[in-house]
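Risk register update: the risk of archive-format incompatibility is retired. Evidence:
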Amino acid sequence: MQSLAYKYNTRIILLGILFYVIFIVTFSNSYSPVTLLGSATFLSYLSFITFFSTKDDSYFTKPLLASFVFFYSLVIVTLFMLLSYYYEGNTFLFSNVDSRLYEQYSFRMKDMPFGESISYIANYFKFDDWGAFVMMSSLLRIIPDKLFINFCFLIFATISAVKMYSIGIRFMPKKFAFLAAFSFSTASYFLYFCGTLAKEPFFILLIILSFDYFYKFIEQKKQAHLYIFIFYLILLFFFRPVVALFIGVGVGSYYVFKRSSVFMKVFFVIASLIFLNYTSDIFLEAYDSYTMGGEFSQLMEYRAESYSHSYSTSFNFVVNIFSCLFGPFPTFLWSGGADTPRTALYAPSVFYKFCITVFFWLAAFYAFKHKKIILYPMIVFVVVEMISLIIVQAGFELRKALPHYPAFYLVSFWLLSQSQNVRSLNKYARYWLFVVILVVIFWNMR
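Archived output:
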């Protein structure tokens, strides 16, 4: 009997092919190779996922995962770079501003003594950017070439996959832990960041390592694992501080819901909401530094303009909420904006993530209903970050949502592994694909 994972992935492939056939002719002619590469990436990505869905648990191992992730990523990122070089004469993947900034300062830092390089970067950037510059400049001290950084990013992606697998096999069969790890680590939007100069590949690895060592600690009760977990949280403060705090909230939920009274659970929820409101103010202040001001309406107008949405502020506010909770939405059509090549490269895996979103929310419901406490840290982390992004109107920006994606995939595939025990899951999946069709058509025809 075919598993739900296999049947659902097959439906996604057929649906994705249909969308690409319908939409591909409407893309800009000047970027049609980008679109064709996007469609080829979609087919290869979903073909591997569907193939793995047919295998038994005994087939899956860490070395197999590492090999598939590294070599597949190497091929896709190389193709992305060749395309970027053909159109723009560089390998920054249509992201010249951020990548050139990281390149410029990292190359300067590599020629300085380490302590001096820290002082240098502190004069120009806030501490939550120091981690990226220190990481890249340290790699350039080994081999002073951007491509070496990108090669290391692929290694980070491979380690991320293996560590996600290690987390997953604690609460689901190896097959589904493998699928979760592979689906995220080879996602086109994640590989896009591996091909540019960005903080995300190492930043995401730190998040995954934090969860991995937290789970090691609660399993083995070794103080060393706790100290390593705290160490990774401290490192995260030099990339994006609030993410470390959100992980802390997620970890706290494990202890509160495992041992505490009803009063303490209610207190934890209220305290978390207050905390979320405070940290969202910090987020908003950061956004305010490069947008038009701190009011929601102005911020929403900026977001809408950036992503070519010509609708009312209230409409975009609702779409922002939906995008945070269920998206982001794949853009197959050419919108005429500067982000078009980038969104075309994102689209293959953004579409897949959108299709499996239903499993995350159902998983959250079933986990709390059946007290699957081991999943609470990841579920709470995902939900808390989603809410914070809703508050600061960042639902259209994949880069800001990326930190919670590894946990999202793990929780979603956990539910898929329970498909034999969850009634009506196949029915919900079919209904959701109908919603996906409507939203994708609307989103690309807007």
